[in-house]
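Translate sequence into structure tokens.
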Amino acid sequence: MSVPLCSFKQSTVFLLRFCLLKPQTDAIPYFPLHRHLSTERNPPPQPPPQDEESLINEAVQLFQAVEDGSSSSTQLHQLLFSPSSPSSPRIFGQIALRLASSSQALEFFDYIRSNSPSQELKSLSFTFQAIFELAGREPDPQNKLLELYRTSKERNIPLTVNGATLLVPCLGRAERVDEALAVVDELDPSLKNTHFYNVVVDVLFKSGRIVEAHNMLDEMFQPGADCPPNDITRDVVPAALSRREWFGRSISDKEIVGLVSKLREHGVFPDTFKLTQLITKLCRNKKIGLAWDVLHDVMKVGGTVEVASCNALLTWLGRDGDFERMNTLMTKMIEMNIQPDLVTFGILLKHMCKSGRVDEALEVFEKMKGGNDGLSVEPNVILYTTLIDGLCKVGRQEEGLTLMHQMRSENKCMPDTVTYNCLIDGFCKAGEIERAQELFDQMNKERVFPNVITLNTLVGGMCRHGRINSAVQFFNEMRSDGLKGDAVTFSILISAFCNANNIDKAMELFNQMSKDGCSPEAFVFYRLISGLSHAGRMDDASSVASMLKEAGFCLDIVRYNVLIGGFCRKNKLDKAYEMLREMELAGVKSDIVTYNTLISYLSKTGNFVTVHRIMRNMIKEGLVPTVFTYGALIHAYCLNGKIEEAMKIFRDMSSSSKIPPNNVIYNILIDSLCKKKEVELALSLMDEMKVKGLRPNVITYNAMFKGLREKNFLEKAFDLMDRMVEQACNPDYITMEVLIEWLPVVGETEKLKNFVQGYKVSVSTA
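Result follows.
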């Protein structure tokens, strides 16, 4: 059933005035969609006819005179209620709207109610509606509207749809949603329109009343509904659901898509912004398939789809490496005459290059330039740079350089700093530092200014290829030219000097950072702590660790392990335990490396009681001993002459542990057994290695040759020499030293010559 035209017109005017005149001092802009909810596509209100306008103005003047006590009400009564008067419910409302305040309008309402011969509820409702509108313009409108609502209930005045449309958001803001729903139920169903439903749904969503909001929408979605959804509904629903994390009941992506689908069935499609926003949100929630369905469903039924929405989906398909669907979407875009733009091709080329599909990216690029398949986009420096970077990343930097020349000559497109950085990085990674420096000189000639990434790329390339001094020289030249390094630059140089055991230079650079006003990042501290610890400079390492904490960073488990290991190597067990206590207080849990470090150190000192206690604690913490754990214990027992205990651990490891012994453990045991002249047992272990698929190395053979020489087991030595030849295990200088001292003395020089023939003796690995 349709709403009377006068009511419909006033609805728009009423709500527009309420929203535009609403004070800006509200604590929370609770109803940000009012500008949409207030602009239903109704015909603009027409001014009253001249005779009505005169009557309204005269009535206002007379009523104000009555209020002031300067006139009697007879003239006003005659004007409004005589049989010849053209007054109507609409005119009563217009008069009330012209009055100075809502309180004066309420007095006019009482006057109408007392003097109107007919006492029509319709007249009273329209007049009361005007009071609502006036109250909405005044300071503190919320309390005034709520007070007027109580007055209407007391006086049994039914609300118009416009009055209810003003009141429902007001009750929602006051968190009186049940009363708002009561207003909805009390309103004559024939008066409710789509605009009213939109307002109610928005209030319900914002109040977290999801079930009731869905029920209202279901009424709108019914086939043949009197109040079907419109474009404002389209805006209300996604806006409300985008804040679903505010509510106790979460709303799934599937529900959102379902609502969008129902809107689509009524010919209401999301606009480009909302569609793009929805696709992006679904993709972020790893619902790319759902996003794909939403976009294609809108396409199928002829909804407006622009390139921005397609680009949003292409971005996430690219991140997922789904090139098949990227191609399908591109084809569909061309079919629907959605012209791909620079962003579209940027997404395609970026993800193709990132996946190593550089040749395919080059094909797309040529099609784009040539206008094939309806594609015609002029490439810019970003697209060229994307391709150049892709070529450099797969080691095709020469092709990248050619492409840079092409962009200049064919497209008059000049390379920028990023373009040069990509090429410089490609040549640095290929070890062609001179070519990289030539490009750096070229960019300076062309007044393409290098940035800190350029500096870091060249410094890093030089350091990786052992040209640390050149890196420092280049770094100093750039500093003098005004291009200071950042934390990454200093970290590269500090790491390079730490790796070269030049800790003094690393510390010098670390101190230089502060002078340059460059605050070290955590990884700079970390690298220096590791370098100092491995160099045995534990006091300096502790000092840097203290500086790290003062800078607001925390030590991680790796650095704690490095410090603990450094203190153990320096025989400062008290300091190592101090680090352990600090770890515990900082909430950093010991890992297997921590335990292995302590087990290794304590085993070497012969403190096996403590070692086994630590191992029990480690297992209790859920950490499984590694081959290094067992190796450290076995080695320590062997060093302390306790070969039987070492063999027991070895046998337990072989039978019950999931960690099988490796070459290192076998070599430790074989060497120790040979030193104790238990050569037969050592030979049996060597045979066992073969059974377990472990290949003896030159260290294994050297230990055996020494043991066999002590026992003068020549035949067994010859067997092992033959086995070395079969396995292509090259002897080293220790092997030759043992055999040269033994075989010629016993007259086996020929055997030695045959063994050496064809071998290239390697440097000792002992």
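Note: The CA atoms of residues 168 and 182 lie 10 Å apart.
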